[in-house]
Amino acid sequence: MGAGFTGLVAALTLARGGASVIVVDTVEPGFGASGRNGGQVIPGLKDDPDTLDRVFGEATTAFAGGTADLVFSLIDELGIDCDPVRGGWIQASVKHLHLPRLESRMAQWRARGAAVEMLDPAGMAAATGGRGFVGGWIDRRGGSVHPLAYARGLARAALQAGAEIFRDAEAVSIKRGNGGWVLGFASGARLTADQVVIATNGYTGRLWPGLKATVIPANSIQVATAPLPDDLRARILPGRPVVSDSRRIANYFRIGPEGRLMMGGRGAFREPRDAADYRRIEAALASFYPEAARLPMGFRWAGRVAMTRDHLPHIHQPSAGVTMALGYNGRGVALASAMGRAIGAHLLDGANPLPLALSAIKPMPVHGLHPLYATAMIEAYRVRDMLER
Question: What is the pTM of this model?
Answer without folding.
Answer: 0.95
